Amino acid sequence: MDQETFSAVDEFIAGTVAADDQELRAAVEAAEAAGLPSIQVSPPQGKLLQLLVRLVGARTVLEFGTLGGYSSILMARALPLGGRLISLEANPEYAAVASASIERAGLSEVVEVRVGPALELLPGLEEEGVGPFDLVFIDADKVNTPNYFDWALDRTRPGGLIVADNVVRNGTLAESGSDDPATGAQRQLHETLADEPRVSATTIQTVGVKGYDGFLIALVEGG
Ligand code: SAH
Ligand code: DHB
Ligand code: MG
User: Less Cβ around it within 10 Å: N or C end of the chain?
Assistant: First the structure.
């Protein structure tokens, strides 16, 4: 098995059960045209996020890392009428591209992109009393994944989900001696969650257009 096969299978899935549409294609094209890195979730992963939003009956979603708005659009579409998604993005140029694509997709009443480093935006969210959230998707700077998780855990309702992308990192998750801080952060998160009674979690390894990685899914207990 090689990357070519992984990509071909993702393309098959994207051409069948996880099909895109004009607005999603436009979002990807706008991001590409503006020079954004092509690191959005793959179509099958995006479809999974949609299914998770529906499975928990989410009305309120928080996202860390907007990029061009691809995952925001997918999750927002899975929300019921009156649902709301807040997405945090450090890069103002990326946020502008995302906001335009979100508007084109007819979702500007549903999705709010906030600009700034997420850790600096969180106190403002706190003050406004937003949340509790039904689902939190963590997909920003990877060294801070444990910090975002920590904050999210106190603000996600019982029965809600916290999902973190890019935790397997080409398999380096298993390397105790890894000197990559992003990998160290994912290892620390897993070790912390092993002793955290408030969540039940697992990590699923993935292959696909984005290579070899994986995501963590944590269910907040008590729901
Ligand atoms: N969720 C997106 C992909 C996000 S890529 C999708 O699947 O479509 C990661 C994003 O996190 C990038 O846009 C990057 O600019 C942003 N980011 C990096 N550091 C950040 C920080 N400290 N706070 C908020 N966003 C950050
Ligand atoms: C990167 C970020 C992501 O969210 C991702 O899915 C893949 C790569 C990155 O920062 O390189
Ligand atoms: Mg990611």
Answer: N
* Number of neighbours of residue 197 by Cβ within 10 angstroms: 7
| 166 vs 171: CA distance, rounded Å | 10
- Which residue blocks in the chain are alpha helix, DSSP H? 3-15, 22-33, 43-55, 70-77, 92-104, 118-128, 145-153, 181-194
**3 state SS of 125:** helix
Across 86-108, b (16+ Cβ under 10 Å) vs e yields bbbbbbeebbebbbbbbebbebe
For residue 173, the 8-state DSSP code is G
- Give one word for 130, left, alpha or beta, with left for phi > 0 and alpha for psi -120 to 50: beta
Residue-level pLDDT, tens digit, the chain, 223 residues:
799 999 999 999 999 999 999 999 999 999 999 999 999 999 999 999 999 999 999 999 999 999 999 999 999 999 999 999 999 999 999 999 999 999 999 999 999 999 999 999 999 999 999 999 999 999 999 999 999 999 999 999 999 999 999 999 999 999 999 999 999 999 999 999 999 999 999 999 999 999 999 999 999 999 7
CB-ligand 1 contact for 117 (6 Å cutoff):
yes
What global pTM score does this model have?
0.98
Q: Is the CB of 141 under 6 A from ligand 1?
A: yes
Please report, for residues 75, 182, 205, the alpha-carbon distance to residue 168 in angstroms, rounded to integers and kept in the order given. 22, 10, 7
Pick the residue whose CA is nearest to atom 22 on ligand 1.
Answer: 117
